[in-house]
Amino acid sequence: MATTGQVIAFATVIQLGAMSPGPDFAVVVRQAAVTGRRGGMAAALGVACGVFVWAAAAALGVAALLSASAAAFTLTEIAGAVYLLYLGVTSLLAASRGSGAPPETTAGTSVDNAVVDGFRRALLTNLLNPKAAAFFVALMPQFLGAHPATADTLLLSAVAVLVSATWFILLANIVGSLRAFITRRRVRRALDAGSGAVMIGLGLRLATTSH
Q1: Which of 4, 56, 118, 121 can bridge 42 by disulfide, Cβ–Cβ 3.0-4.6 Å?
Q2: In 92-141, which ranges are E strands?
Q3: In angstroms, what CA-CA distances link 62 with 11, 38, 67, 134, 207?
Q4: CB-CB contact of 34 with 154 (8 Å)
Q5: Helix (H, G, I), strand (E, B), or coil: what is residue 36?
Q6: How far apart are CA 78 and CA 182, in angstroms?
Q7: How many CB atoms lie within 10 A of CB 78?
Q8: CB contact burial 26-62 (16+ within 10 A = b; e otherwise)
């Protein structure tokens, strides 16, 4: 059974990984800025679900197989890079049009679409990032050992989800609280241009990173 110290150490590493700038950070910030807190929190939960998948896959050895297979790793890299480039181009097009952000309080379909879109974008961004697989492949065995108990696997996976969800929900709320400023035309265009450039840069970096 994992000790309290191991759980705390694991949670600390997960927290540091979540706070580092990357695709997850970028997609949550943009979603919260564009669609408000609900869309941002949905994106945070999307990232958390992706984290759970990678943590469980690493514990079961699936992520290790992906990391060990050059073809599978490269395919995931390409898919992730294409998706990040798509998100980046979409943001740059929005910046060029100068379109305003949809109101967070518009009832019904708009709010529901923002939640679904935020969750889907963040989940795909995380799942299509092979570096997430490599991160958990390197991390999980250090805390689970060669023959982990099911309870320990579930515990550490739950900790990874809880830490990630808490951090990104906090981030979404901070960005969402600034939305009145962010949705000003000039600020919104600058945000779209900046986030688009970041996502394109991350996509190109992912595409050119060798296994």
Answers
A1: 118
A2: none
A3: 22, 33, 9, 11, 22
A4: no
A5: coil
A6: 32
A7: 14
A8: bbbbbbbbbbbbbbbbbbbbbbbbbbbbbbbbbbeee
Q: Which residue has the tokens 């969750």?
A: 119
pTM greater than the 0.85 cutoff: no
Angle at 25 between CA 64 and CA 88, to 5 degrees: 95
The residue ranges of every structural domain in the chain are: 4-208
Distance CA(87)–CA(110), nearest Å, equals: 20
Q: Going residue by residue through the chain, which has 211 residues, state the pLDDT in tens, using 9 for 90 and above.
A: 668 888 898 899 888 888 877 888 888 988 888 888 889 999 999 999 999 888 888 777 665 555 556 665 666 667 767 877 877 787 777 777 765 444 444 444 466 787 898 999 999 988 888 777 777 777 776 777 656 677 777 888 899 999 999 999 999 999 888 876 666 667 667 767 777 787 788 677 767 765 4
Query: Token match 């869309």: residue?
Result: 39
- Six-digit token string for 60: 């079961």
